[in-house]
Amino acid sequence: MNILHYWRAMWGIIGRELRRFITQRERFISALVRPLIWLFVFAAGFRSALGIAISPPYETYILYEVYITPGLIGMIQLFNGMQSSLSMVYDREMGSMRILMVCPLPRWFLLLSKLLAGTAVSILQVYVFLGVAWLYEIQAPWQGYLWVLPALMLSGMMLGALGLLLSSFIKQLENFAGVMNFVIFPMFFMSTALYPLWKIRESSALLYNLAQYNPFSQAVELIRFALYGQFNREAFIYTLVAFAVFMAAAIIGYNPSKGMMTGKGGA
Amino acid sequence: MNTDIALSIEDLNFSYGKKKALDRINFKIQPGECTLLLGPNGAGKSTLFSLITRLYDSRGGRIELCGFNIKQQTRKALAKLGVVFQQTTLDMDLTVMQNLRYHTALHGMGRKQSMLRIQEELERLNMFDRRFEKIRQLNGGHRRRVEIARALLHKPSLLLLDEPTVGLDVPSRQDIVDHVHRLAADENMAVLWASHLIDEIYPDDHVIVLDKGQIKANGTVNEVLQLTGTSTIKDAFNRLTQGAQA
After folding, report:
1. What is the distance in angstroms between the Cα of A267 and the nearest Cα belonging to chain B?
2. Most exposed: A60, A261, B88, B136, by fewest CB within 10 Å?
3. Which CATH superfamily, name and number, covers B1-80+156-246?
4. pLDDT: is B244 or B216 the higher one?
């Protein structure tokens, strides 16, 4: 086993995921339509109801659409991470996951590559979304579009690792509806994606705490600051740690002697 | 470590909770040998395959592929293994070539070597001209051919097939049965073929009859017939599994 083997396998996995995504046009369109509806309909409606005070990284008063954009980027990655995990459950039920699992590489590396592949797909979606938002005159400084790339990589990996972890526990595809109700919605609504923390604090201290410690909030803040050329150290560390924890748990979950296989199979 | 044996299974046990799925399984497969694993539904065939491919982990017993212990030398062991699973594991929206390139990438093969091996294996199965077609456009038999070609790209020493002919028409089934037997003979490849179709057995094959997690018979076709005092494998199978549906 040499480095070249790892390299080729990793690009093989990423290439397959990108090709699959591009050939599945419906998936591409629906991934884009969801945040755009939020942007064009929800945000436009809320614009007058919600005033956003000047707070970092913004230096002036901003429209609600501007505030919500990083949250919607996070939403794209959250859905993508969960969709990847859905496809892992599907692949496992259908058997194509087995092809990956029987190749002669360590399982952690295969899972990490799968995660990178999912993140690459989500980044593709995010940039298309940012392009549409730009045309809608939601424009960040041009450097922001570069700075946001590493932030997207980390947030995508973190949310993907969470999806991976969930997929190791979900035994059947039907159970996935639960993920929607118990993971995606709470994570999204109890975060800084739609409203800033100080605004949440005004209404509920509990919600404020939940939102603050929600890793999704931290990922959104990382993206928000990066999009305006700033580095949010706290959000970076929090997201990084969350990624490490989710990833380690997912690797254990996929270990045949410790994780889901024993749950599924016994001893 | 005995590298003259492609697959060695010793005292293998496996349970789902309290239910014993495999009970003290022992057998060996030599290179060039085609072994049919027969058993009714629920006999433990799929569990055995999951253990050999290390999708499950056993706590009791030992599995070696070409001398490599599947638990301790997992990657070396898996490198020797080609698998065709019961359900199709191809990407429907990708072409034959893209599916096969994905496999060669997972096995660390470079572009030139990949192309060469893909051509060799597809030509052998008369599928090379269809390499740019999407899997969705192929019929069941052709999809199976692609999966067999894929399993062979990295030149494995042991080929595992989990009921690969299920749902295929008679000519497609016959093609696959013939091709796999030729592989064992010409390439000196060891084959373990799980099946419940008696007519897939050649007279020179080895047969293992598995029922309720136990091996009921293990030997050549003639040995199994002698053991059971029957004249056809079908009768032998019925006797060994006490009439369980194959």
Report:
1. 5
2. A60
3. P-loop containing nucleotide triphosphate hydrolases (3.40.50.300)
4. B216
